[in-house]
């Protein structure tokens, strides 16, 4: 069978709903991992996507986080949050909160995690330490699935560019989050756990970025970053027939600042 899996930081599913529905109809993924829902679990537009043949498992609070998986091939073994997931103590909070940044499910023959890795803000910020803790917890959480014989992948907005080739100008990001050795070491640890980076092919430009700032004409100038990633185990990677960034979904008004990443499998 063939299977199309995609990941997309939607940057508010409510604000981007027309774009989401349009893209689902045109791209026709079997499984879609979403991040940055910015809506509570019960506020997700379940009926609208169900009309296109998708069931949804969502996890959100209505703030700046939230994740979901849409599937045409069913759901089994749904898990919300990473086991032992760290929380973040915000400046205005008394207790550390476990944010809705991860959801997993088995969809047909494939198991997937949809993850929205913390941004990190600044290298000397508590949020950066939280990001590194979160990535280490992710590594520990996927060890068993990564070593299994079932195709398995972690997809989402990792908020890390794996190499200097994944940003438009390394000098611009020097000293900033997303490119630090510690963040990249966390991705290397995922690879050492048995997951490989399924890099999308470039369609229009030499480099396949997935995020472009809304400011300074970053998208038309292709001043972007590749931070939306697919990390798959050996059975998953062996089944990949194609992977690409759908830049068309980033064009026009009212779009997310991220583009969907599509992975096609032959199983």
From TrEMBL:
<dbReference type="Pfam" id="PF03372">
    <property type="entry name" value="Exo_endo_phos"/>
</dbReference>
<keyword id="KW-0460">Magnesium</keyword>
<feature type="domain" description="Endonuclease/exonuclease/phosphatase">
    <location>
        <begin position="6"/>
        <end position="258"/>
    </location>
</feature>
<keyword id="KW-0378">Hydrolase</keyword>
<dbReference type="InterPro" id="IPR020847">
    <property type="entry name" value="AP_endonuclease_F1_BS"/>
</dbReference>
<protein>
    <submittedName>
        <fullName>Exodeoxyribonuclease III</fullName>
    </submittedName>
</protein>
<dbReference type="InterPro" id="IPR036691">
    <property type="entry name" value="Endo/exonu/phosph_ase_sf"/>
</dbReference>
<dbReference type="InterPro" id="IPR005135">
    <property type="entry name" value="Endo/exonuclease/phosphatase"/>
</dbReference>
<comment type="similarity">
    <text>Belongs to the DNA repair enzymes AP/ExoA family.</text>
</comment>
<dbReference type="InterPro" id="IPR004808">
    <property type="entry name" value="AP_endonuc_1"/>
</dbReference>
<keyword id="KW-0479">Metal-binding</keyword>
<dbReference type="InterPro" id="IPR037493">
    <property type="entry name" value="ExoIII-like"/>
</dbReference>
């Amino acid at each position: 069978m063939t299977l199309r899996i995609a990941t997309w930081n939607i940057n508010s599913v409510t604000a981007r709903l027309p774009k989401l529905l349009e893209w689902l109809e045109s791209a026709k993924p079997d499984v879609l991992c979403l991040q940055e829902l910015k809506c509570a679990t019960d506020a997700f537009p379940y009926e609208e996507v169900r009309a296109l043949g998708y069931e949804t498992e969502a996890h959100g609070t209505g703030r700046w986080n939230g994740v979901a998986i849409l599937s045409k091939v069913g759901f089994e073994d749904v898990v919300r949050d990473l086991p032992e997931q760290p929380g973040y103590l915000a400046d205005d909070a008394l207790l550390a909160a476990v944010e809705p940044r991860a959801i997993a499910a088995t969809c047909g023959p494939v198991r997937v995690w949809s993850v929205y890795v913390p941004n990190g803000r600044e290298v000397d910020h508590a949020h950066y330490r939280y990001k590194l803790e979160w990535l280490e917890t992710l590594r520990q959480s996927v060890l068993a699935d990564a070593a299994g014989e079932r195709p398995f992948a972690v997809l989402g907005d990792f908020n890390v560019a794996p190499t200097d080739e994944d940003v438009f100008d390394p000098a611009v990001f020097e000293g900033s989050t997303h490119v630090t050795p510690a963040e990249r070491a966390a991705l290397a640890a995922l690879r050492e756990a048995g997951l490989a980076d399924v890099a999308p092919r470039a369609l229009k430009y030499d480099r396949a970025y997935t995020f472009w700032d809304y400011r300074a004409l970053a998208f038309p100038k292709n001043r972007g970053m590749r931070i939306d990633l697919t990390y798959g185990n050996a059975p998953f990677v062996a089944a990949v027939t194609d992977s690409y960034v759908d830049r068309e979904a980033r064009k026009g008004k009212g779009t997310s600042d991220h583009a969907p990443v599509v992975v096609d499998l032959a199983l």
